[in-house]
Amino acid sequence: MTPIVQFILALAVILLAAKLGGYISVRLGQPSVLGKLLAGVVLGPSLLNFLHWPMFTDPHLDDSIKHLAELGVLVLMFIAGLEVDVAEMRKSGRAATLGGVLGVVVPFVLGLFAARWFGYEWSTAVFVGLILTATSVSISAQTLMELNALRTRVGLTLLGAAVVDDVLVILLLSIVLAVGAGGGGPMDVALVVIKMALYLAGAIALGVWALPRLARLIERLPISEPVVSVALIAMLFYAWAAEAVGGVAMITGAFIAGVLFGRTHLRHGLERGMHALAYAFLVPIFFVSIGLEANLRLLTASLLWFTTVIVLVAIVAKIVGSGLGVKLVGLSNVEALQVGIGMVSRGEVGLIVASIGIAAGAINEELFTVTVVMVLLTTLVTPPALRWALNRGRPAPPPSHAASGD
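Request: output the structure for the sequence above.
Response:
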């Protein structure tokens, strides 16, 4: 088979597995994303090793799937941004900031000392801590949207905390890499911070000024699907600029673009158009791709205890750190638990940090395998745990007359 034929077959199987997994998960009372993730585990090297069957000879097939998966998470974060009410998000500013800050500090410290306890060098331990600071809110955003909870106080706080988390993680990563390269003076650190701040300020200012004008022009353009087309172009440019110009993750740029488009009158039309593209094609590929990254067969007995500790630290540290942060500014215990659980998933952000670590020589392939397992398990546990926590926080239905004895 030619490479394009192999690619088409792989996509067909991945999409079929994602839809079947999501359907089974919903029938069992769980978020559909959980079934899609497990479908990826079944197809991946842990069990079937689907992409390496003899019929798939194209050496670039893995990369092609990953690129589509990355597009999927960008669209997912754009849609999450569309769902955000900016005025309501401002009200959760203090909670989101403190939740994001402590959601970075606590996992970093606990991860660093856990790695040192198992005998790793300080440089490696620092990177392990950095990996645990990451948060991939795309998994939680999907669950929040399925439960119609994205625009609640918890949902808005969670999204805001994830943005703060992302900025701090990239800042810490940039500082660690600068120090490791011998260029970690105060001026270098200051330049990193200034670069990120200028991007965020510029991206928001440009969107606030230009997008309302662009929105009025879009609908008059004599092209097919002008609204969705222009939104996709803007999303891609914002995602590119986030990493290339601002030094922050692409998903942050896509999220900001979604928030800015959500302030225009095009919001509802965009939601319909983007949902069709996202959930029929790109987003299922993203969720399955996380499972495709995991190879549980590489876990040796000597790594099993360390992996177990890292997974537990990854879960507990986010719940404690982010939960405590929002609790300190007035959220209830149940809401703090919900936000903490929503920050647990590491997803693609943890994998990105780990990939940078292995490229820089800070971690080895064994630790990368541990990272993939940690990312997979935290991503798998987040949807059902968040669903449970959100249902716990909802008021119980009023008792019937028969039950109350009236």
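The chain has a mean pLDDT of 85.
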